[in-house]
Amino acid sequence: MLGVGTAALGVTVAPAVGAVSLPGTRPEAAWAAGRGESDSVTREAFDHLDQSFNDGHGWKDETNDKDSSGLSGKLAWGEAYLLQGYALMYQTYGDTYYLDKMVDHIDHVLANRDSERGVRDYRDASQPAWRANHHYTVGTAVVPDTQGRPVLQVRTALAYADEAVATVSPGSRDGTFRLEVRHHFYGRTTRYDNLVLDPASDDYAVNRVLRGFRTESPDRVQVTLKDLRQRGSAQNNVAMGDYQMISPPYVFGVHTGQIALPLVMFARIVRSDPNLRAKSLYRKRADTYLTAAEEAVAVHDPEWRETERGEGYYVALPGAPVWWAGIDLPINQFLALGRATLQLAAVTGDARYVDRTRAMARTFHGDLTITEGGAYVWPYWWSKGRVYSGWDIDDPASEYRPWLPGNQSAEDVSHGQIDMNFALEMFRDIPVFAGTGKPVFTGADMERFAATFTQNVAVVTDDGSLTVNRFIDGRGPTGLEAYERQAGAWADLTPWDGSILTHLRDMFNSHEYAVFPSTAYDVARINHAAQSPA
Asked: pLDDT over 70 for what percent of the chain?
């Protein structure tokens, strides 16, 4: 879970993968009232944020695909964060009010699984998970010949593909055609003239567009073509006209991980407390939610990979409607599944979950570099993966992006909290992995993650205002609200450096942030760190 860097439902998606901006609310008066006279880091502040967003209903009634809002990701990047917030608030204050909120919201979220709604993904499968499409998946349109038979599939790897249109018109030379792909969301257009369908010609459409992928102008729409004709077909005349792109639905591993995580958190909270287990509602829901989480995570079993060195990660399967089909996921995306798998390991003790969690931990730990100041930095894409190194059209790793310079960008603060919290949660659950080898993450690792925040993330500007850098290696820009809000999710590193909580508390107190479900999650994180730092 895709080429811009805007706010994504309270989490910002890195440039390599794409993003979405959906409306939150900005009731500044309500935010100010909710945080009391001087401190947003209170139970009252969280409750007020919760109620300020859709009257406390969050996005529990939304789907994760575009059906309910026109854009995908509301459950994964919105409701899932709110559910994590409820779990954290229960852990912090012990009030079953938050567990009751979880029951209400999770029941709605489970009712919106693909298998319950009867909707299908790009393979025509209806699974116990949550699909997404526009704005995340690639766009495709089929161009027929003059008799209505499929000739070419036009594709764009650029996000928001449902807002792209392919136009076929007569070429400048007789017997040729012109292809123009207009992407209305970005205001970009890619054009090719004098194309033909003869594979032996230098102007064969598929090859011309492939060669031009690196030099599209005036702006990149990332267009590729696929020949749909049967071998030896005499279909040579394309039908002129406009062809609307569509984004096929796909179940993203990162979305499943995000949504499954709070389901397992609820089950773990209930099963670890005899008083909660004694209540029939909680006990039955814990069983139901645990089963649902296991079923959802299992959807991605075919995508699991492990190296001879015991490094584990997930890929997108070949043929998936994403530009990295057949390629390893970004670190934060497979670690989102890793966080859910870690909790499943803790609740069930199942060796499959234990082993996979350790394998993903090895992958992540192997990409951590220590700076001179003792901080950790790491890349967005796994350094041993294909995207990190890149490829060219002579040996493309992606049919949708046949040319890609290596992407060695550092992780950003927003996604980095997923990575860091995976490591932190594994460190806290060392007993779960006892007997399976030396712990992957130790207290020394936590000190280095804390140094990442204090040395690279936290910023005090010349005028004394508090903000954060965008990237975990200390690069900016600074002052971006989405990154400031998601920096709150680093709060549980406070035991290793108390200045983290101070910076976050003061930053949240001095800003008026948009009210997203993730805003409540970040405030819950800070509450959790402030009330139970150990």
From this structure: 92
- Residue 249 and residue 234: Cα distance in Å, rounded? 33
CB 386 within 8 A of CB 397: yes
Which domains can be identified in the chain, with CATH numbers?
Answer: 7-133+250-531 (1.50.10.20), 139-244 (no CATH)
The set of residues, in sequence order, having a beta carbon less than 8 Å from that of 478 and lying 6+ positions away, is 459, 461, 467, 468, 469, 470
For 527, counting Cβ atoms within 10 Å of its Cβ (0-12 exposed, 13-18 middle, 19+ buried), the class is buried
pLDDT digits 0-9 by tens, 100-117? 999 999 999 999 999 999
Give the per-residue pLDDT at 15: 33
Residue 354 DSSP SS3:
helix
User: Exposed e or buried b for every residue in 362-388, given b needs 16+ CB within 10 A?
Assistant: bbbbebbeeeeeebbbbbbbbeebbbb
Please count the other Cβ atoms lying within 10 Å of the Cβ belonging to residue 534: 4
- Give 445-457 pLDDT, tens digit per residue: 999 999 999 999 9
Q: How, if at all, do strands 369-370 and 312-314 pair? A: unpaired
Does the N-terminal peptide bond of residue 218 adopt cis geometry, omega within 30 degrees of 0? Answer: yes
